[in-house]
Amino acid sequence: MSLFTGWRAAFRIARRDAVRAKGRSALVVAMIALPVLGVTAADLTYRSALPTVAEDLTADLGAADALFIDQGMGPVRLEQMPDGIMWGTPEDAPDTLPEDERKPVDVPATFPKGSRSLTEQSLPASVTTRHGITDTQITELAVADPLLRGRVELTEGAYPKAKDEIAATEAFLKASGLSVGDRVTVRGPEQAYTLTGAVELPADLKSESLFAVPGAVIAPWQKIADGDKEILPPQAGDRKWLVKGPSGAGVTWSDVRAANEKGVVVRARQVVLDPPPDSEVPMAAQMGGWETDNAEMTAAALTVAAMAVLEIVLLAGPAFAVGARRSRRQLGLVGSCGGTRGQVRAVVLAGGAVLGGVGAVVGVGAGFGLTALFRPMIEDFTGRRFGELTVQPWEILAIAVLGLVTGVLAALAPAIVAGRQSVLESLTGRRGSRRSSRVLPVVGSLVLAAGVALAVYGGVSGNINLVAGGSVLAELGLLCCIPVIVGFLGRLGRRLPLTPRIALRDAARNRGRTAPAVAAVMAAVAGSVAIATYTSSSAAEQAYDHEPNLTAGTAVVMAFDTSQKANLPRARAAVEQNYPVNGGRADIGRVWAGSDCSVYYDDEEEGGCGTIGLVKPTGEGHSCPLKGKGAKELALRISADEHKRLMNSPACVDERWTMVSLGNDDSKIVIGDAGLLTSYVKLDDPAAAKALAAGTPVLLNPAYAENGEVTLKTVHTYSERDKENRARHPGKARTTTDRLKVYVAPDRYAATPGIRMILPQRTAAELGLHTEDHAGVYTLSREPNDAERQAADAAIEQSGNRAYVMTANGTEPDDDAAILLILALFAGVVTLGAAAITTGLSKADAEADLTTLSAVGAPPGVRRSLSGFQCLVVALTGVLLGTLAGIVPAVALRLTDLRAALAEMRADPMESAYTPIVMPWETIALLALVVPVLAGLLAAALTSSRQKLARRAG
C-alpha cells in the first residue's frame, strides 16, 4: 500500500467515524471553530477599522486635493515631510521674531493657479443644551459643498446655508438632548442659531461638535467683543484652506515646496499617495532615525496566540482521546488486518485533520458572516465607519491553517496512545494498566520553579519580556504537574459518600481527559486572576496616593470676581436648586491685605492684593523630615505606612504643592464661622466653635503654632489707580507681623484640603485686613449627574459666569470594578465550558460503569449526582490552580512598579513608593465558589437519571 493510498484510507475511516459520532464531532468542531471565528472576526474588524492612507486623506480633505494651513509663524521658510504632519523650521533658518509672527501670510497666493478653495476655522465655545449648557467646538466650514463629501455626511435634515443656521453631529445631539429644528445659543456673544441638520464624521463618529457657514460665528462674536469689553473675544484656531487644484493636475510636491517658502504647511493627496524620493525632501535627513520598536508587542501577540492554541488543544484533546477509545475495536481491526502502528496513528490523526478542517472552514465562514451582520455595531463601538471590509487573503488562510493544525495537535497525543495499544487489548476492549510518568512531574516542578524565579527576576530588573516569559514557563510547569495532582485527588475520597468518591476516583483513573480540562480551566483563570490582581493592586495604590481637592461629599461654589455682588448669591442659588444638597450652607470669605483684589493690574509693582501668610517656625515638629539633609536615606529606610504618616503630618502636609485653596492665595487663610467647622472641616468640637465666636482663629495645622500662638506676616500694598480702596486706607505700603493666640486643632485636621486657618471676621478687621464673601460650601447626598451639572452651569452662566463649582474628586473605582467583573465572567464562561466538556466526555467514557451501577441497584439519582460532582471536581481544581498560577505574573509586575517607584523616591523623598499587592477576593470567591457550584448544579440538572439497560459487551 502506497503512502497516498494509506492516508486516503485513513481519511475515509476518519470521515465515517466523525459522521457516526455526530455529537462528539460537533463538540470538537465547535471548540475549534469558535476561536477561529473570533480571530477571523477580529482580523476583519482590525483591518477594516484601521484606516488606509487614502481613507485618512478623505477624513482630512474630503474630496479636495490638499489642505493648506497657516501655522501662525509668519512668512518664514518651513520644511515638512510629504505627509504634511511633520514640519519645522530649517536648521539654518534665522530665529523667528515676534514681529515676524504678526505679519500676515497671503495663503491663497500660494495655491496653484486655477484652484478652488474653502476656508475652515474652529473655536471652542459654550452653548445651550436641553439640560443647560455644555462646552463644544464650532467649525466654520461650508459643509454643503461637494468638496466635503467623505469627510462630513448629512444624516438628517439639511446642511446650514444661512448665517443663523448650524448643523450638529449626532453625538452632540444625543449628549445635549436636542434635535433638528431646535435653537442653540452660543454663550458669550449670546448668538442664537437654528439646528438645520444632523451630520456625522465617518472618521470620528463620537465627535460632539457644531458646523456653521464661514462668517457666521467668529466675525459677529469678534464685533460684539470689540464693542463690549466685558465679553471675551473668540479664541479661534489656525485658519485652513481646502483646495481643489486645476482639473487633473492636483497639488504637486513643487506646489508644496513653494507654499513652505511662504510659511504654509500643506497636506496634499497626490503627494501623500505618491511621495517624492528622500533626496527631494530636505526634512527627510532629520527623520531618518525614527523607527518604532514593536518587539514587545510582537512578543506579546505571539504569546497570546500560543496560549490560545494551547487552550484549544487542551480542550479538544480529551475529546479525541475518548473518540479513540470508543473506536478502539475499529482500530484493532485495522491492526489485525495487517495495519502498522503508524497507520493506526494515521487514522486518529486523520480524524483530527478532518474535524480541524471542518472547524476552520466553519469558523472562517461564521467570522465573515458575523462581522458583516454586526458591522454597524462595531463601527459605533470603534467610532469610525469602514470604507469596506478589508480582507487580507494570506492572513485568513493562516487563520484557517491554524484551526487545521490545532485539530491535528489535539489528536497527536491520542494517536500516539492508540498506536502503542496492542491489537488484543483493542479487540477485547481492555484498557490495560499503565503507570503514570514519574519524570513529567519532576520536570514540571523544575520548570515551575525556574519560571517563578525568572518572572521575579524580570520584575526586580524591570524587564517586562522576562516577566512574560517566566509567567508562561511557570504555567507550563504547573501544567506538567497536573496529572500528579489529579491522581492525588483520588486518595481524598476514601471517607466521602459514594458519588463524590466515585467522581474523584474516576478523575484520577482517567487523567488523560481530566488533566487537560483542568489545565484549560487553569489557563483561563490564571490570566483573569493575574489581570484582576494587578488591577486591584493598582487601584489600591491610586487610592493610597490620592490627594483630595475637597473634603469627601462636599461641593464648593467659588467666585472668580466679586466686584458684582449679586453674582455669588445667584450662583449659590443655582447650586442649591440643582445639586443634591443635604443640609445647609457654610459661607467662606476671602481675606487680603492690599488693594481691592477684584481690580486687575498690568504691573504687579503698582500694587495688587498684597501678601498674607503664616510664618512656620523651625525645629523639630515644625520642619518636615522628608525635606533637606538626610531626607532620601530616611525615605528609603522607613516603611510605606510610616512614609504616608509623615506625608500627612502637620510638618510635611503643606510641603506638597496643591492647586486647591479656598481662600484667594496660597496662605489658605479663610474667613468662616462654626458652620464651616462642622460641614467642611468635620471638626465637631464645642471648644473650637466657642473660640471662633470669641474672635480666636482656629488653626488646622499645628506645625505653624508655637506655645499656642502663630505669627502672621502681612504686606500691605496699595495702587494709586485703586481710588476707592486708597481713600479708605490711606498710607504707605508697609509690612506688619502679628502674634495671634489660636485654637490648635488635632494633627489629623492638618490635611484638610484648601484651608490652613479659619480667621473670624472681627479679628481680620482688627488687623486692618480686607474681607469679602467669597464661596459657599455644601454637603451632598450623592455625586451630581451630568444633567444636574449642566443645569447648574447654565444658571451660573446666566448670573454672569463669575463663579464656578467644584466637587470632591474620587479615584474612579467604577472602571476597575467593571474590569474585574468582565474578567470574572470570561474566566467563569471558560470554566463552565471546560467542566461541561469534561463531564460530557466522562459520561460517554464511563457508560459501562454507569450501567453496572444501575444493575447492582444504585438509585436513579446517582447518575445525576455523579455528573454534578465530576463537573465540580474539574472546575474547582482548575480554579484553585489557576489562582496560584495567576499570582506569579501579578507579583512580578508589581515588583516592576516597585522598582520604578523607588527610583522616583530617590529623586524626590516626598514621592511615595507604596506598591501593594491586593488580592481580588471578590473575583476569586466568584470563581472558586460560585462557578464550580453552578457548573455542578447545571451538570446534574441536565443529566437524565434514567438509563436504558443494555447488555455489556465482552
From TrEMBL:
Predominant localisation class: membrane
Membrane-related topology note: Multi-pass membrane protein
InterPro entries assigned to the protein according to its UniProt record, in alphabetical order: ABC3_permease_C (IPR003838), Membrane_comp_ABC_pdt (IPR038766)
Record keyword Membrane present: yes
Region (Disordered): 108-128
Biased composition (Polar residues): 116-128
Residue span(s) of domain ABC3 transporter permease C-terminal: 304-422
Localization per record: Cell membrane
Transmembrane segments: 299-323, 344-374, 394-418, 439-460, 472-493, 514-534, 817-837, 871-892, 924-942
Domain of life: Bacteria
Presence of the UniProt keyword Transmembrane in the record: yes
The entry's keywords: Cell membrane, Membrane, Transmembrane, Transmembrane helix
Protein name: FtsX-like permease family protein
